[in-house]
């Protein structure tokens, strides 16, 4: 993860990965069939800690939008993960990139999840009717992504969580519920 | 520009650039001292057509925010430029990337330009007082960036201009003025 985050996929070398984990390149290739296979493994590992894997366990309605803000807050304490995601998602649009379908599918899934949460929020009476849920969902995800690049370049100038919350409140014409509990590392939310 | 857009900087080869323009690698290096120097040249060329170079000529107040929406609309017809920007801006956060300072300075300049336009919009009575202009500016720029990656991966699903306009209207609590004129390719705005 560290190698892909600091080099990008295209510029990462198996030699560096092998050196970091104390294996030979052949040793790494014993566990992963190729550099592309290693990337898939890294993305799967990352997903295990991420909103994309919340599935049926995700908070409903505006509580899910609060969860996105909490994720942005949480992300400010894990620069490596943010960098990995920002670099690989953009790099995935280059020709023949092995993570292109991964990110295309991932964004479609995220948009669907936010759209579903917005529908729930309307049903719960949390947000007004008449919003274009597809556009709002697309814009919220875009804001979170774009903030990551600005924050990585100027961490002292950018507050990802504050800007995410401001954008979500504006786009939904609604306040967000409080976080379920103070964030504590290692504790399930 | 095409090589950096389709490969990223790290993965681009001078050999490919040279072949595209019908020169030897030595011929390319006669005009640009290094691959990093070539990247600087490409970014300077791109800027010549971009909002970052509007300077004192930029529209004032909400007319500038309309200009951002028009830029997003325009961008949907120039995939190569969008890809170049999306790939290089994110890649710039990798270790030792030669465009890191370029993008750090560029984002700071864009934020300042949008903040200035928001102050003008308040003075003109176009938007209400009490907005956090820094946060709103950061979020607008972030939305535009994030939309580019989603659009590059799914151009038929994402309307960059519509999502940008929705976000700006929501964040400023204001409508946007009409475009100064219908967009026409090749005509100065």
From TrEMBL, chains A, B:
Recorded hits in InterPro entries, A to Z, give: BetI_C, Homeodomain-like_sf, HTH-type_TetR-like_transc_reg, HTH_TetR, Tet_transcr_reg_TetR-rel_C_sf
Report whether Repressor shows up as a keyword of the record.
Answer: yes
Q: Which SUPFAM superfamilies match?
A: Homeodomain-like, Tetracyclin repressor-like, C-terminal domain
GO molecular function terms listed in the Swiss-Prot or TrEMBL record? DNA-binding transcription factor activity; transcription cis-regulatory region binding
**Record keywords:** DNA-binding, Repressor, Transcription, Transcription regulation
| Top-rank taxon, per record | Bacteria
For this protein, the record's Gene3D superfamilies field holds: Tetracycline Repressor, domain 2
Query: Pfam families under this entry?
Result: TetR_C_6, TetR_N
Q: Where is the HTH tetR-type domain?
A: 1-50
What name does UniProt use for this protein? Answer: Helix-turn-helix transcriptional regulator
* Species the sequence originates in: Kribbella qitaiheensis
């Amino acid at each position: 993860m560290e190698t892909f985050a600091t080099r990008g996929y295209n510029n990462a070398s198996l030699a560096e990965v092998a050196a970091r984990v104390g294996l030979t390149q052949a040793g790494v290739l014993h566990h992963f069939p190729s550099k592309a296979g290693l990337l898939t493994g890294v993305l799967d590992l990352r997903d295990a800690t991420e909103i994309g894997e919340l599935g049926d366990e995700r908070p409903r309605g505006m509580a899910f939008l609060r969860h996105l803000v909490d994720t942005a807050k949480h992300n400010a304490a894990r620069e490596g993960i943010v960098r990995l995601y920002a670099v690989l998602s953009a790099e995935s649009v280059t020709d023949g990139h092995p993570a292109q379908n991964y990110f295309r599918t991932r964004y479609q899934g995220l948009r669907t999840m936010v759209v579903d949460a917005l529908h729930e929020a309307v049903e719960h009476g949390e947000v007004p009717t008449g919003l274009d849920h597809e556009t709002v969902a697309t814009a919220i995800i875009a804001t979170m992504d774009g903030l990551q690049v600005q924050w990585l370049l100027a961490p002292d100038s950018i507050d990802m969580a504050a800007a995410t919350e401001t954008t979500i409140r504006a786009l939904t014409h609604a306040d967000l519920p409080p976080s379920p509990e103070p964030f504590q590392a290692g504790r399930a939310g």
